[in-house]
Design brief:
By secondary structure, this protein is α+β, with helices and mostly antiparallel strands. The chain contains 6 helices and 8 strands. A hairpin with a 4-residue loop joins β4 and β5. α1 crosses α3 and α4 crosses α5. This is Acetyltransferase. InterPro entries: Acyl_CoA_acyltransferase (IPR016181), GNAT_dom (IPR000182), Ribosomal_N-acetyltransferase (IPR051908). GO terms for molecular function: protein N-terminal-serine acetyltransferase activity; protein-N-terminal-alanine acetyltransferase activity.
Length: 179
């Protein structure tokens, strides 16, 4: 495949998700270490992954990219729920469990946030994280996100209702961090 890198980082690149990536994505999203922290509760087959690709990834309502390290996929990151009038969107990501602790998620999030502010002209980026996902909370805080609130018992995961923490990052906070 020709180089289709969209955003280049020091250790990771972000590129468009292609149909050839669907088997990787289907296998990854069925891993409990991925579906639990992102709130999945049902298995995903190839047809459902294809539908997600066709309707969401190929849709006009967001930006969905594959995170690669040394040209190998290590996760995904997306910007969705974009409200152009209000200038805000929600970032979401997952990293292959074998690649946790490498800093790939942090760098990918920094690339996506910079793109959202610099290229899309957004004013605010939001994120939500389950209370049990401390690694993701640390990632967001390291990038500059601020915890803004908690929705109690917001999702049903692993047989119990779980709290969801809401995070936000304003453009000026990001710019202040850069200087």
């Amino acid at each position: 495949m020709p180089d289709s890198t969209f955003l280049t980082g020091e250790r990771v690149d972000l590129r468009p998700i292609e149909e050839a990536d669907l088997d990787y994505l289907r296998d990854a999203i069925n891993d409990p270490a991925i579906w639990r922290p992102i709130g999945g509760s049902r298995p995903i087959n190839r047809k459902q992954e294809q539908e997600f690709f066709d309707e969401v990834v190929c849709g006009d309502d967001g930006v969905h990219l594959l995170i690669t390290a040394d040209d190998a996929p290590v996760g995904t990151i997306g910007l969705r729920e974009i409200d152009w009038e209000a200038g805000r969107g929600e970032v979401g990501y997952w990293i292959d469990p074998d690649e946790h602790g490498q800093g790939y998620g942090t760098e990918a999030t920094e690339l996506m946030v910079a793109y959202a502010f610099d290229q899309l002209g957004l004013h605010r980026i939001e994120a939500r994280v389950f209370e049990f996902n401390e690694a993701s909370q640390r990632l967001l805080e390291s990038v500059g996100f601020v915890r803004e609130g908690t929705s109690r018992e917001f999702e049903f995961v692993d047989g119990e209702y779980r709290d969801t923490h809401w995070y936000g990052l304003l453009e000026d906070e990001w710019r202040d961090r850069e200087s």
